[in-house]
Design a protein that fits this description.
It is a single chain. 24% of the residues lie in helices and 26% in strands. It is α+β, with helices and mostly antiparallel strands. It has a four-stranded antiparallel sheet, with helices on one face. Strands 5-6-2-13 form a four-stranded mixed sheet, with helices on one face. Strands 8-9-10 form a three-stranded antiparallel sheet. β11 and β12 form a beta hairpin. α4 packs across α5. The N terminus is likely disordered.
């Protein structure tokens, strides 16, 4: 997550969000249905956009408006989460953190048929957050937030997500020099995503989503690159990665988002 002070992004409308898929050589859609329940019965989703039960390998993506949390959502937070929210210097930032954690609890609790307040979290390999219980084991997730929006990706296999407000900033040029190689810098300058600014954020979110998926973190950012050739590929230490796919949720013109997973993203919904 890039930590700059952001202006308010345009809110996504209350419909299912579009998805642009870029195949990184991963497997085709999985066929086996999992025992995880559909979240539709416990989470408000827009009529006609209700997700089906989560199948093994696929991903469900959720966009959350952090400035308009649902009534009662925050009651699911535990003492540590409330304490952390209270330590933010900005009241608004603390409220957004709290809303993102509460939304994560509600969404995961629905898939696990468990009380959101009763969920326990742990740190897995590479520092990746994981659900410690209750409910069936094996549910993977990735949470990212920027300004007043959060992106939550849920799967039964490896998944990573990132979301950023697209905005100019004086520090981006230095950041690109430090974190991007010459090939990526040239791709961004050519405007691979339409403009140089959007291209920077497309590269950034794709790289960060990949690093979150494999549990390395930003320490590996300088070794990760988005190759925008045809087909595009993420490279790590110069070699193309395999077995993963890059998805680009179309949240709004002012938002860049990316999901990296081993299976297809079945859809993107908004928590109501």
């Amino acid at each position: 997550m890039l930590r700059f002070t952001a202006r308010q992004p345009t809110r996504p409308d209350r419909t299912a969000h579009g998805l642009v898929m870029v195949d990184l050589g991963g497997p085709g859609p999985a066929e086996r249905r999992s025992a995880m329940s559909s979240p539709a019965s416990a989470i408000g989703v827009r009529p006609g956009c209700q997700p089906r039960p989560l199948s093994r390998g696929e991903v469900h993506a959720w966009v959350v408006d952090l400035d308009s949390p649902a009534t009662g959502l925050l009651r699911s937070l535990n003492a540590a989460e409330r304490d952390r929210a209270g330590r933010y210097l900005s009241t608004r930032d603390g409220a957004r953190f709290a809303a993102s954690r509460a939304a994560l609890r509600v969404i995961l609790g629905s898939y696990l048929s468990a009380s959101p307040a009763g969920l326990r979290f742990a740190t897995g390999p590479g520092g990746r957050p994981a659900v410690a219980g209750p409910g069936p084991a094996g549910l993977e997730f990735s949470l990212a937030r920027t300004a007043g929006l959060a992106l939550i990706a849920v799967s039964l296999k490896t998944v990573g997500a990132d979301i950023e407000v697209v905005r100019p900033h004086a520090g981006l040029a230095d950041l690109a020099t430090a974190r991007f190689g010459s090939a990526e810098a040239a791709c961004i300058a050519r405007g691979c995503a339409g403009t140089a600014l959007m291209s920077f954020y497309r590269h950034w979110t794709a790289k960060e989503a990949y690093l979150k998926a494999i549990g390395i973190g930003l320490a590996g950012l300088a070794h990760t690159a988005l190759d925008c050739s045809h087909p595009p590929a993420i490279r790590f230490r110069g070699s193309p990665v395999s077995g993963l796919r890059l998805w680009l949720p179309d949240v709004s013109p002012e938002i860049a988002a990316a999901i990296v997973s081993s299976g297809p993203v079945a859809g993107c919904w908004q928590l109501a």
